[in-house]
User: Fold this.
Amino acid sequence: MEASTGAVLYHKLQLWEPGMESGGEEEEETVEPLVLSLRRLQNNPRNQVGGLPGAWARLLAGLLLLAVSSSLALRQLHRKDSPKGNLGPAAPAASRHSHRPGVYHHSAIISPAATCSQLGQELLVAGGNVVDAGVGAALCLAVVHPHATGLGAMFWGLFFNSSSGNSTALTAGPTQILAPGLGLPTALSALHLLHTHFGRLPWPHLLAKPAMLAQKGFEVDALLASALAAQGSKGLCPLFCNANGTPLGLGALATNPNLAAVLHREALASSPHLAGSALLNLLVKDLGLEEPPAQPMPSLEPALQLLMPQGVVFTTPGPSAGPRLLKLLESTLHSSTPSPAFCPSHLQMPKAPVSSALASVDSSGSMLLLTSSINSVFGSGHLSPSTGVLLSSLEASSTPSAWACPLILRGSLDDTEANMLGLVASGAPREAKAMTCTLLNHLTVPQIQQQPQHQSQQRPTESPGICGQGTLLQVAVHAEHAYVSSVPNGCSPFRGY
Assistant:
């Protein structure tokens, strides 16, 4: 579909400035041209006036063609002169041709929840960019997927800015304990920081729908229902329990009014330094602490890079798993027989730290990969009564960043139209190895990931158990089109235009 908004521009950071063959064919266009038959007009007896057969017919036909041409020209001029950057809601016009599911003309988003992918699409159509869509979807997931992420989660991110050519890492900052076994929340400050530097829509605009979902209710989807069934009701009532104390099931309506109030307050935060302060003050009261601890600030840093003959790989710095990812890639590529044979068939692993991932991409090459975790299913299981937030579990043996290693491959540093590939995984600590395998496969047989014709755009098609154990999200840009998919198939709904 054609967008009615203008080009989306990304802002540059002020502090630093670091220096696929398509898998599917487009459907044929079906446009019926407007044809006027002058011969038919001339030969019609009713067109003979004043003894000049066909003269008036030719004159009228010429005037009609002139009027149609003028109308089309004025329409085109009006479209070119229309102001860019309109942030109001605008429904995209119908496209003259379409693609298979997962391929889009402009931009797309993929996440584990259909509601949040739809929100990301709405933000894109409203004039937002991939950062707006990704951050809005992350806030949505904090409401509808409390078993894997939330405002108590830790976030890592990787953003490639096609307008500047820079690749930026969102780093979570040092891990800090709020109380014994409970991690200090940094989600709001991290997402607000990313949005402040690169987002386009107003910050409150991104919080509106997540707050509405928490207030008015959201349907329990298959992934949340599966997690509730396995966890039971301990520590989760009354938010996620029926009147008889049993966990909510698939399709049940859940609400979280205290979380909605926190999101409404958060909309008033004017800077990343103030983001999350209202939440932290409420948590301090809930836990009976004397004063709030110093809140570590997440940061934006240049991404790590690895130059290869096929292009350059970007990822996040330590203490994420990004450095390990680059070591795996480098050692495999320099081995005598580089092969993806060691790749696991699935991303599954018992007792894996639970994490959540999403990705957004546009056809110009910009992409955002976000991953977050509360370190176990429903985190610590400690539900803050005044905020509706589940705090992350934090122990001395915890390695909360082992799940974080988003990856972006750019085909060439010099070519502004080079193919782009982004990978981000959730659910298992072996993600670095899984993404190394996927990238090696891509380099061995360069191609945009094929997607089945009937892949779902709305709800997971795999069983919740399989999807919950590990999902790899893939986004790509090729020939001015955006591609999105997941492995296993259908585990993460996608939307775009």
Remarks:
- The chain has a mean pLDDT of 77.
- The longest strand covers residues 355-362.
- Residues 55-81 form the longest helix (27 residues).
